[in-house]
Write a structure and sequence with these properties.
By secondary structure, the chain is mainly α. It is built from six helices and no strands.
């Protein structure tokens, strides 16, 4: 009956749906970007990395990278931390996601990436970093003005 009206209605539905998807993904953009950075750094050929004289500096880098990852995954859920039961469950999920990604990176280093090798010590450092990031995230948000920048109350 009114074909132009139904076409415009479909266009409007498409725009609303796209806006909803963008709004739901937007809080995760920093974590997604950090996941890509970890992927690139993990896949970088090992023989082209700078040699550092400090013993086990590599493990400290793993801890820091995965602490940042779990912290960035923590940020979108800050407003949901009112309920204590949810708080524990969300932290556990964030830790498991970070540890799984760290394990995947170690497997990729061992099997696919050129001149790289995965090992259990790196995986352990990734795990420690994931736990640190989630554990210290409330303190960081409390004492640094990050919550004002992100408009978290």
């Amino acid at each position: 009956m009114f074909p132009s009206l139904s076409v415009e209605n479909e266009k409007l539905k498409g725009r609303v749906k796209k806006a909803m998807v963008t709004r739901s993904i937007k809080p995760y953009f920093p974590a997604i970007i950090w996941l890509i950075i970890i992927l690139v750094l993990s896949g970088y050929p090992g023989n082209q990395l700078p040699k550092v004289a400090v013993w086990q500096f590599d493990k400290l880098v793993h801890v820091i990278m995965y602490s940042i990852l779990s912290f960035l995954l923590f940020l979108p859920f800050c407003k949901q931390f009112l309920n204590i039961g949810k708080r524990f469950r969300i932290r556990l999920i964030i830790i498991l996601v970070s540890i799984s990604y760290g394990g995947l990176m170690e497997i990729l280093q061992e099997t696919i990436f050129i001149n790289r090798g995965g090992n259990w010590i790196d995986f352990t450092a990734n795990t420690v970093g994931a736990i640190f990031g989630v554990s210290f995230a409330p303190l960081v948000l409390k004492y640094l003005p990050i919550n004002r920048w992100l408009r978290i109350k």
